[in-house]
Amino acid sequence: MKEKIYLSSPHMSDEGFELQYIHRAFDTNWIAPLGENVNEFEREVASLIGSKAAAALSSGTAAIHLALMAAGVGEGDIVFCPSLTFSATVNPVIYQNAIPVFIDSDYETWNMSPVALEKAFEKYIKLGKKPKAVIVVHLYGFSADMDRIIDICRRYDVPLIEDAAESLGTTYKGKYTGTFGDYGVFSFNGNKIITTSGGGMLVSNNEERIEKTRFWATQSRDKARHYQHSELGFNYRMSNIVAGIGRGQLKVLNQRIQRKKDIFEYYKQELGNLDGVQMMPEQDWNKPNYWLSCITLSGYVRPLDVILTLEKENIESRPVWKPMHMQPFFEKYDYIGSDAAEKLFENGICLPSDTKMTDGDLERVCKVIKELWR
Ligand SMILES: *Cc1c(COP(=O)(O)O)cnc(C)c1O
User: Global pTM?
Assistant: First the structure.
């Protein structure tokens, strides 16, 4: 069997930065709870992206959950979400007993369509059901059309949550994704651009709200000698060991982005001219982190042909996210738009984008794919 090529796997620094921070935690016995690595990891992420405050959490999903709570989303509230995303964007809406309304994508960004978003507002305002929050996602590290989305949210005076789980390091018009919304969310899950083995971060310029989410994330313990609770709590904080991995990974973020970009460029050069192949579109306002290199196919070769052919060669690829409004669990919720999300799902593939791939590996992937066009 040929050596496995992954879609996107953990890639620790060559220098061993991660272990240095972990050793520091061991030396001071700050294994848990919290500690220097957590505080510094929060400070470093906030300072990198230009956000006033950050809370390190156990996952990106936990960060979305707390962002919804911080935005005041509760039972029966409407939340507008993109349909084309990973389920973790939407699950926390259900944790809060709120109601997701799914919004279509556009072909220019694959992300939330401002046109469909405007339509959704018109419909729900007319019904007297103004949404409590909008969640926007920057899919595969490519930013959404933020100016237009922000303009709509401001006009209707609704808080914006940015699910930037896939887009740490991506900038839109020179500003980091995650800093446009009232709240921004990052994930450090194993396959993301940098990983802590599992973890997340909630960022905001509202320091008081971040302080409040830290309180919720540590079981909502009131300031009292005895254990006293006036609110529902969660166990959502990041450990000091995990944060050490994050601090080490942050040092190689730019290196990872550069390699991801090179991978995208290589695919563009090798596959971009094949009949029916389209790269995920790049916009001039967008400086993506290129987390995953994605293509769509409009010709005779279908995505499943590519995925299965790669699989036989021990190469991992996968379909683009299946839209939420097509999911058995979520299909009962409203969907606004046309069929862009569905078409992107039908025609899209995420190609291997592992930064550990050598140039030889990339060549191998493209050779296998190109065989299908012969
Ligand atoms: C990975 C991901 C999440 C969830 O992050 P976890 O850290 O795995 O909980 C949320 N939204 C999107 C778009 C993601 O890709």
Answer: 0.97
